[in-house]
Write a structure and sequence with these properties.
296 residues, alpha+beta, D-Amino Acid Oxidase, Chain A, domain 2, Rossmann fold
């Protein structure tokens, strides 16, 4: 992703390289995981002494993804490489193994066979026939997006259970504020009380969210941010008890004397974008091994 975000690259518009400060309320958090980023350094206490409860902090140059722009970019690459999209409702893995694309498309290819199946169904893993993985569950997340082009730095406050208050500037001037992570909460729409809670937390962490003309005359309050809201987000992250399922198996095709490789890649929770390229590489390796395409 760092290479994709390079200046003048084809995907630069999907990313923003920005200064980031991470504040930790607990010692057991491991900021060294972020040391791969440029400009990584530990901050002295004077940089966070005014933030209640913070015991350590680091700064770095982070890579912020504008996901509504990044996903169409990936789709354009897929289509340009010859990929085909078929939208359909699948009740059981066997439907794909036996019927292939022809079962779900109005245009027949004349050959319903498939070489393998990669299962990336998110929360659908709970109900998809042939899988029905009840270890999959939602982690509800809610965000608020402001129009605040004066915000150039990101910040996160990490609590003991891994929950975060975060400010993420995007290329173009919008800023994502969050967040929440509530397990087994299926409500799909933003809640007004959660919006106010997010605004309170993020403003306390980063008063510079308020417009400069407001800050020039008084201390900002949450009401100063309401007029800046351009969108609210809510999503059900597809988490899994026991962690990501990233493995393969050979599955028999009903009525046929053969098996096909099925690769499972789901349960990433809120880390799907971060782990996407690594997971895809692992999936590709499994398929190559199944097809006998590995290195001699």
């Amino acid at each position: 992703m760092w290479k994709l975000s390079a200046p003048d690259g084809g995907a630069e518009h999907c990313f923003l390289r920005a200064s980031q400060k991470e504040y930790y309320l607990v010692e057991q958090s491991d900021p060294e995981l972020l040391s791969i980023y440029p400009e990584f350094r530990h901050l002295s206490k004077e940089h966070f002494s005014t933030i209640p409860g913070v015991v350590s902090a680091v700064s770095l140059t982070a890579l912020n993804i504008n996901t509504p722009v990044y996903l169409p970019y990936l789709m354009s690459r897929f289509l340009a490489a010859g990929g085909q999209v078929v939208r359909a409702s699948v009740q059981h893995i066997h439907q794909v193994l036996e019927g292939g694309i022809d079962l779900f498309s109005s245009t027949s290819t004349g050959d319903p066979s498939v070489d393998g199946v990669v299962v990336c169904v998110g929360l659908g893993a709970r109900t998809l026939g042939g899988l029905e993985d009840k270890d999959v569950y939602p982690q509800r997340g809610q965000t608020v997006i402001l129009r605040a082009p004066w915000v150039k730095e990101g910040r996160s406050l990490v609590a003991a259970e891994g929950s975060r208050t975060y400010i993420i500037p995007r290329r173009g001037g919008n800023v994502v504020l969050g967040g929440t992570r509530v397990s087994d909460d299926w409500f799909p729409k933003p809640r007004p009380e959660t919006r106010i809670d997010i605004l309170n937390r993020t403003l306390a962490l980063y008063p510079e969210l308020a417009p400069p003309d407001v800050r020039a005359v008084r201390e900002p309050v949450v009401d100063d941010l309401l007029a800046l809201i351009v969108e609210e987000g809510c999503g059900l992250r597809p988490a899994r008890r026991g962690g990501i399922r990233l493995e393969s198996e050979w599955m028999s095709i009903p009525g046929q004397d053969r098996q096909l490789p099925v690769v499972y890649n789901y349960g990433h929770g809120g880390y799907g974008f971060q782990t996407s390229w690594g997971s895809a590489k692992a999936v590709l390796s499994m398929l190559e091994e199944a097809f006998g395409l590995g290195e001699e």
